[in-house]
Specification:
Strand content: 5-15%
Oligomer: single chain
Distance between the termini: 89 Å
Number of helices: 23
Structural class: mainly alpha
Largest sheet: 4 strands, mixed
Helix content: 55-70%
Amino acid sequence: MIKETTRKMQPNFKKWLWPTLFLALVFGFLIFWRLDRFSLWHDEADLSLLSKSVLQNGLPLALVDGKFITQWNGAESTSHYLWFFDTAPFLYLRAASFKLFGVNAWAARFPFALLGFLSIVPLGFLFWRWTRNAAVTWLSLFLFAFNPWVLLYIRQSKTYPINFFGIGLLLLGFLNWEEKKKGTLLYAVGLILLFHANYFICFLSLGGLALYTLFFAEGKEIKIRALLTTIVTVALFCLPFFLIGSFETRTNMMTHFPTVVQYFKKFGTHLFYFNRQIVPLILVFVWIYWWRTSQWFLVQKKTLLLITCIVLVGWFGVPILNFDVLRYGFQLFPLLCFLMAVTLLQIYKKNKIAGVLSFVILWGTGLFQSFTLIKPEWPAMKNYYLKEYADPIQIIPKMVAEKWKPGEYVYLNSSQHVWQFYSDIPLAYIAEPEKISPKVPPLEKRWTDRQVIRWWIGPDRVGLAEGPHISEEEIKKEWEAEGHAYEIIDTQIPVLNWDLNSPIRYKHFLERFGDRPPHEETIQLLHRLK
């Protein structure tokens, strides 16, 4: 019986082998082509500076080459500058890339892009094991690999793509247990990767698995295995991370528990992002229909229950932490792509014309992505890859360097770490002294004294994080009151181009790489004269 089933499966698998290889080839090209085209954006540069510190000191210290790495008045590091806000493994991974390829943007992004590309391996095996259907597997990978937002997040020097790889391994290990096979190593490695990529995402994923295991998993053995493996793995490879630095400080920097009204507002925003950027939520009604009529013939009901538990915990859990952005739901991306693939093939099996039209409408045009006719992302993606743009960080430091003199300090109220990574011209951070814990060695005066500012660089980002950011009008008034003359230099670089590679918000990405307004605000440099 097993041999006969295998013989039936082989032609189906072989028929899809070359299309799958072609998909992987194109996916890899879209990930790696011009990977260093744009300079690192704020968070990328922040983490890259820490990895550079690892190369020099063996530890991620927040003071490297005389540059102070912080976004929250130094709260992310201990009194001796040891960084504790991000877990260390991927700082060391980036440092290893720097060691091999040099300290540059390409080397900063390469290891994460590589793991993002390789994530289609565990995900492909997972989709195949869930359905034993090569068409479903291929279409799931297609919808995942050619989602613009998956590509954009993978092409960054952040841990975003690690979540894709980790959730695939975690669920493969769990599936092995369900099928009475060995899965402890896969599960444990997936859990470790998820935790060190983003521990909020990790705990949300575990919450979804716990919900499924308690109420729907069959047999006590899998419940015991899941519980013991989770406890041991978290205790040995995850929780020690929290021993460095203050846990209260770490959570207070990012998490502020919402009121009831704020919770539902965040929840709605979170669903809005998923609807427009990952899977049109109109498919929920299709899933409910097939669920009620028990006509899911491409996937078992227990698989749908597992995915449902993880998705619901992910969707309802993120607003509790007061987050509403897409990057805290990466574990759901491939699962929703799988459900979309199953849905489209279900429709196709019922009616081929309806299936093709559904695919074109839901993926090709974005027609129903917000229940209204909207412009799809692909024109902006085309511009992102092909159209040439003025990259501020490639131009502004050179403009400043032409007039900069020793002893002059530059103030940026955005993208501080980008400047620190690409330029050695010293910055005046202007942190709030009363909020900074004592540091050893103490911070230089330029980090807390706004009188040292000789250069101000826009655009305005007043209120960003918790630093006291200074607007253009404010610094002009101060200089005029003190009798200082100043010059204004227009860079001719549009403000929207600042942090070009930071696709956190749907609207911002389309603004940067869509049709440009005729008269855009440009980045200004103010130079205080003696």
